Amino acid sequence: HQMCNLYGMEQPCVEKVKASTRNAVFKVFGHERDFVLKLFKVSGNYNRTRVAEHTAYEMALVDALCERGVPTAAVISTAGGELPFVEGHPALLFERIPGSVQQKPEYPLGSIGAALAQIHQVQIDCSLGVEGHFTFDEMCMIWLPQFSTYLGNPGHEPAIAEALQALLPAVERLNPGPNRATLYGRSPSVHCHGDVTPKNVIVVGGDARFFDFNNAFFGPRMADVIDGALEFSLADKYIDLADFGRFDAFIEAYDRGSSLNPEERADIPRWLELIGVIKFTKELRVMLERPAEALRRRRALAVADYVRSRLAV
To answer: CA 179, CA 268: separation in Å to the nearest integer?
Structure first.
C-alpha cells in the first residue's frame, strides 16, 4: 500500500532479501522494472539518532554522483520528492543494477580501483554541492574512544589483549584531534563511500560499480582508499582467502584512476594506523556482542597483525 502511495506502483511485488545487515532489504517489481528497497534501522559510522538525517544525505549524495555520470544504483524519487518512510523507518528505493557481486577473490582490482577513483575525482574536479554534515572525524570520535574503553576492560582472551596493547601506541599518536587534522589536511576532502568492501561492488560487463552509501561521510579520500585496501585484502567473509598482498595492489589500482599526491603516499603508514585501529575496534565490538561468530575474531586479529607487521608497532 505504501509503495503505491509513494511511487504510484500498481500492485507491486515485494520480497524480503536475506542480507548481511540489520537494515531491511527488499526486492521490488513494479512499473515492469526491478528495484531494491532499503529500510534504514541502524547506523554505522554515526549516532543512531541521526539515521533519517543520514538517509537524506545519502539520497542527495547518490543523486549528485549520478548527475556527474558516476555509475551507481540511482535513487528513485517519490511522487513528492520527499524522503520516504516505510513501516516507520526512513527508506530509499534504488534501481536494481544487473550484474554480479564478487565477494570472493580473485577481485578485478583494476576496475574496482578505477570505480572508487571516479567517485572521488569528479568531486576533486568540481564540488558536488552536497553539504557534509557527517564527517570522518566524527566517526573517529566514536571508534577511538571505544578502543580505549575496550583497552580498559579486563577479561579479554590473550590474543585480543595482546593486540589491544600492541595497537595502543598508534592510538596515542592519533590523539589529540589536531594530530589527525594535520593528516587530513594533506589529502583532498570529498564525500567518501565509507564502506569500501567487496559486498558493495557489483561488476557489470567487466566494469565495477559501487553502491550502498549507507556509511558515507565527508573527509579525506585516503580514508576510503586505505579502507578498501584493507577490506579487499581481508576478502570479506572469505577470511581463509585473505591476502595482504592485495593492499598495495588496491592502492596502485586507485592511483591509476586518480593520482595520489606525494604527501598522501608518504602518509600511507599513518593512514594504515588510523583505519586499522578503527577496523579492529569495529570487529571487536561485533565479536563481543556475538561471540559465536568466529569470523569477527579472525578479522580483528588479521587487521591487528598486518598493522603491526607493516609498521613494526
So the answer is: 15
Residues in the chain, overall count: 313
| DSSP code of residue 24 | E
> C-alpha cell of 261?
599526491
Q: Long-range contact list for 26-30, CB < 8 A, 24+ apart?
A: 27/96, 28/3, 28/93, 30/3
**Angstrom distances, CA of residue 110 to CA of 84, 217, 255, 295:** 37, 24, 10, 27
Cβ-based burial of 131 (10 A; exposed 0-12, middle 13-18, buried ≥19)? exposed
> Measured at the alpha carbon of residue 249, what is the angle toward residues 260 and 121, in degrees to the nearest 5?
35
Q: List the beta strands (DSSP E) in 150-291.
A: 189-192, 201-204, 207-210, 217-220
Q: Looking at the whole model, is its pTM more than 0.85?
A: yes
User: What is d(CA 19, CA 201) in angstroms, rounded to the nearest whole number?
Assistant: 14
Per-residue pLDDT reduced to its tens digit, 98-155: 888 889 999 999 999 999 999 999 999 999 999 988 999 999 999 999 999 999 999 9
Q: Please give the distance of CA 4 from its chain centroid, rounded to a whole number.
A: 32
